[in-house]
Amino acid sequence: MSGLADRAAKLDADDPLAALRDRFDLDPEVVYLDGNSLGAPPRHVAARMADVIGRQWGRRLIRSWPEGWWDAPERVGDRIAPLVGAAPGQVVVADSTSVNIFKTLVAALRMPPLRPGDNGRDELVVDAATFPTDGYIAASAAELTGAELRPALPDELDGVLGERTAVVLLNHVDYRTGRLYDMAQATRKAHDAGARVVWDLCHSAGVLPIELDALGVDLAVGCTYKFLNGGPGAPAFVYVPHRLQEKFHQPLAGWGGHREPFAMAPEYEPAPNISRARAGTPDILSLLALEAALEVWDGVDLAEVRAKGMALTGFFAECVDELLGDRVEIVSPRDPERRGHQVSVRHPAADRLVTALAEREVIGDFRTPDVLRFGFAPLYNTYGEARRAAETLAGVLAAAG
Ligand SMILES: Cc1ncc(COP(=O)(O)O)c(C=O)c1O
Ligand SMILES: Nc1c(O)cccc1C(=O)C[C@H](N)C(=O)O
């Protein structure tokens, strides 16, 4: 036991990102390992929101719209862009991930074929292990456009993609197992088959360097309340590269995406740029909380974040192996290169164990039917916390007999 404690102390002492933890408002009694569901608040966000509410809303009132409110979706999108490997002008923050999946899928299904003249593609391939909302929304987009759904895992696309495939919707990291898929390979496979690809980055944005532009990804969406720490219900982002913006005909043609919203014209005319991915009024309070939260990334090297995420999850897996042995099964990939910043552990009483851990101030979560998930946010989690979580889990299991 003390071997692990010593190792954790040494790893924390040598951690080049250790000082970043102080940027977050954390309860020192709590081991918070659920940043893959809801990230922790950066300290300065509360004061910023006091200004947004007290001054911008309270004093400037309606005058705040042209003073940085109306264009916040694009401005905050440009702050997220470098975190996902996108040049400016290609990311906008608006609506929820679910709504953006709908916009991007319908837009992708309506786009002209990747290869000119290659018409008649009518299949929408969807990640077979996806977080449910993606599957539900894909079904809805398919119903609306007449496409047919076909399930496939992101690393089992061979033999599935073919001349009928129009669009492929994939998760970069599996929400249940933490498995990280090869974006370069799957994107290439989709394109080789003549299909467009839409990536859901919910569990990878803020976790590792992502190269949307360099890989020629068609469209992407992601949420901002997990590893980007935007706060509960923070709006999601959409990526539409410059080369596809003119072809992006999304189904929610609201005034927010209009070329001239304040002309109040009777006919819809989409904006010529990323703004066409917007729909209605931006949720300013959440959006500006997210904007403030994104400042914690200033000067942070994503390669270092990734290195720590792999090391933290690896150390946690090692603690689980040593302290719990075969009483639980680690279902996340052992190879750190194929794992997001999450370790999932299987046990038949997972639900009860998560509750018992929370009673001991260790917060993870449960995913049906039998998975305990532990998310590691390298900006604020420590190796000491990884050890304490495994030790607490061992204690809870021992107490249960
Ligand atoms: C992969 C994935 N997609 C989408 C969502 C959620 O979508 P929304 O933000 O619309 O609730 C989640 C988590 O809630 C998720 O894990
Ligand atoms: N978005 C959530 C919510 O509104 C309530 C509770 C949990 C969530 C989540 O983000 C779940 C998460 N996507 C997951 O991976 O399970």
TrEMBL record:
It comes from the Bacteria. Pyridoxal 5'-phosphate binds at residues 97-98, 131-134, 200, 203, 225, 255, 281. Its cofactor is pyridoxal 5'-phosphate. GO terms for molecular function: kynureninase activity; pyridoxal phosphate binding. Pathway: Cofactor biosynthesis; NAD(+) biosynthesis; quinolinate from L-kynurenine: step 2/3; Amino-acid degradation; L-kynurenine degradation; L-alanine and anthranilate from L-kynurenine: step 1/1. GO terms for biological process: anthranilate metabolic process; L-kynurenine catabolic process; L-tryptophan catabolic process to kynurenine; NAD+ biosynthetic process; quinolinate biosynthetic process. Keywords: Hydrolase, Pyridine nucleotide biosynthesis, Pyridoxal phosphate. Its EC number is 3.7.1.3. InterPro entries: Kynureninase (IPR010111), PyrdxlP-dep_Trfase (IPR015424), PyrdxlP-dep_Trfase_major (IPR015421), PyrdxlP-dep_Trfase_small (IPR015422). Homodimer. PANTHER family: KYNURENINASE. Belongs to the kynureninase family. NCBIfam families: kynureninase. This is Kynureninase. The lineage of its organism: Bacteria, Bacillati, Actinomycetota, Actinomycetes, Streptosporangiales.
